[in-house]
Amino acid sequence: MPEPRQEPHEPERAVAGTGMGATMDLGTSEAATLEQPPGPDGTNPHERPRSLWTDAWHDLRRNPVFIISALVILFLVVISLWPSLIASGSPLKCDLAKAQEGSQPGHPFGFNGQGCDVYTRTVYGARTSVAVGILATLGVALLGSVLGGLAGFFGGAGDAVLSRITDVFFAIPVVLGGLVLLSVITSNTVWPVIGFIVLLGWPQISRIARGSVITAKQNDYVQAARALGASNSRLLLRHIAPNAIAPVIVVATIALGTYISLEATLSFLGVGLKPPSVSWGIDISAAAPYVRNAPHALLWPSGALAVTVLAFIMLGDAVRDALDPKLR
Amino acid sequence: MGRYVVRRLLQMIPVFIGATLLIFLMVNVMGDPIAGLCGDRECDPATAAQLRHEFGLDQPVWRQYVTYMGNVFTGDFGTAFNGQPVTELMGTAFPVTIRLTVVAIVFEIVVGIVLGVVTGLRRGRPVDTGVLLLTLVVISVPTFVTGLLLQLLLGVKWGWINPAVSSAAPLDELIVPGLVLASVSLAYVTRLTRTSIAENRRSDYVRTAIAKGLPRHRVITRHLLRNSLIPVVTFIGTDIGALMGGAIVTERIFNIHGVGYQLYQGILRQNTQTVVGFVTVLVLVFLVANLVVDLLYAVLDPRIRYA
């Protein structure tokens, strides 16, 4: 189940789990200021020191994985904004007489069990997935990094309470929570699904943000700024946030892919979006009983879903490689 | 060590209460549990009030929660609304899901670690790149898609397996569902082992072992693997809870009558007692597995001492 993965989560552990992406501790500040290798093309090392972000961008532009996944994502965003660009019909126009028929001119993917054009429905299904993925990630990242950042910065009782609350959320299986909460909701829009993902997803980001704020606030320049009389809000926004945000961005990008797959899973189980909404999860669920006669109705939306999730996870992987100075 | 265990056990209490309370509240939002009891018609008000009183549903939510938890700790998980005790449902459902989880974990351990060792030792070679790409694909394809595809190919097209698992759910019928359930974690275990092996391969003790003239397989199994498996054990331990909770999708696809099936039915039929009871047990399993992993840590890595 590609639900948002739970990180090995004990602060007491002496050895951090490696390779899981989220437990990374990016030594961002050091890497950004100390490493100034002269550019490979002979650039002047006396120029303005390259920041972590320019370094990362420099790496990303040359990474084929990043380019491919970014192009796929760009394509998905464009067709979710204007699906009529490549699909002329309506996804809700179905003709029962054509039910389960295979590919034919004008209908490259054939027809599903209700005689709807699989190609049109697959194209229109992108909108749901992309909308849920992007909006849910924005919500999770905002809520999680604000709560986690404040807890990490101020510490104390609030921090302890927040840590226990995140523990509670980690103990509840995600799909199960979705089934329970969404099974009563009758509204057939993407908003309940997004709300649910934000509700159960923020602890993951909050934990990452808390850890990276705690690392960043111990840096000398933060102490120096504090000694010069900078206010808490100035410390947080000007000094800590820019150096603590990288891990949040990485985890959020990878999580975006898993949220898309979570929406499809919930729709597949019948509690996410419901017909007549168009979603890959709904189409896959509807095609499953006819799979003997019309496997194409199952395969196309499944393939689209898999490629979309893969694109976001690969993008997250590439961004992590670029932002993690330890892998340089 | 003893003090550490006590502290961890005490820390588990608020998490347990919080998680069960949260699910209790969620289930209470689920709608009217009485509605399903009078068949298709609506209950007449007097009967509804009588039923509500009988089930204690006229009490405030926190009272219901306290009463319920009090009962749970005396081993009484209540009765499902069809009159069957929830413990009886658990008695039939949990063995099936535990078998499924065991199959999944065996896959994770055997296949995941072997692939991880092979790729970690051959970093950058074609085998490594191929397996790495494969894990990325497995992580990306949602479990229900993997499940449906394997069911279509192995069950329907080639007829190697029975597409649906019988109600007894013997081990051999659970192999493919177990693989599906394990797939995503399997990919994570592979990647984790690979990173860990590749990191430790450059360490001093491995160089020493090689310099001593130990045979290659002994260096790998005794020195390299033992030290590299620590993060993997952590991951697999925390995964047990996730697997049991995540079995809903797999059990639905292969029609396995385990915990996920009962929970799904309970949620669809708004069967409060079933849902809360099963979730309570799942949360407990998750917490205990986490504790065991933390303790195992000290056993595997003597450098770690719990004060």
TrEMBL record, chain A:
SUPFAM superfamilies xref list: MetI-like
Keyword Flavoprotein part of the UniProt annotation: no
Pfam families assigned: BPD_transp_1, OppC_N
Domain ABC transmembrane type-1: 126-316
Major location (coarse): membrane
Name the record gives this protein: ABC transporter permease
Region (Disordered): 1-50
Keyword tRNA-binding tagged: no
Record membrane topology: Multi-pass membrane protein
Superkingdom of the organism of origin: Bacteria
Keywords annotated in UniProt: Cell membrane, Membrane, Transmembrane, Transmembrane helix, Transport
Species in which this protein is naturally found: Streptomyces olivaceus
Gene3D superfamilies: MetI-like (1.10.3720.10)
Similarity comment: Belongs to the binding-protein-dependent transport system permease family.
Signal peptide positions (record): none
Location of the protein in the cell: Cell membrane
Record-linked InterPro entries: BP-dependent_transpt_permease, MetI-like, MetI-like_sf, OppC_N
Transmembrane regions listed in the UniProt entry: 65-86, 130-157, 169-202, 244-262, 298-319
Biased composition regions of type Basic and acidic residues, renumbered to the chain: 1-13
UniProtKB/TrEMBL annotation, chain B:
Signal peptide: none
Cell cycle as UniProt keyword: no
Gene3D superfamilies: MetI-like
Main subcellular localisation: membrane
Membrane-topology annotation of the record: Multi-pass membrane protein
InterPro entries (alphabetical): BPD_transp_1_N, MetI-like, MetI-like_sf
PROSITE patterns: ABC_TM1
Pfam families (UniProt xref): BPD_transp_1 (PF00528), BPD_transp_1_N (PF19300)
Membrane-spanning intervals of the chain: 12-31, 96-118, 130-154, 174-193, 228-254, 274-300
Lineage top rank: taxon: Bacteria
Keywords recorded for this protein, A-Z: Cell membrane, Membrane, Transmembrane, Transmembrane helix, Transport
Entry's localization field: Cell membrane
Domain ABC transmembrane type-1: from-to ranges: 94-297
Keyword tRNA processing annotated: no
Family: Belongs to the binding-protein-dependent transport system permease family.
Record protein name field: ABC transporter permease
